[in-house]
Fold:
Amino acid sequence: MTEDRREVVVTDIKIPFWSMVVLMVKWAIAAIPAVIILMILAALFSMVLGMIPATGWHHYWGMSRTWS
Structure:
């Protein structure tokens, strides 16, 4: 079996202006759920990180807390 490989160089793509506008509006609408999901993940991550100092680092490093 021989594979024939051909290189292709794209030099220009002609897209009508309004088709490009519609495409970009669709991209913007599709990005909204993605941003919401990323914000939820960031909130969960920050809550987890926020709970670590509340429990105290001494639990993780085997040190006891002494206040004088």
Remarks:
- Residues 17-55 form the longest helix (39 residues).
- The chain has a mean pLDDT of 82.
- The chain has two helices and no strands.
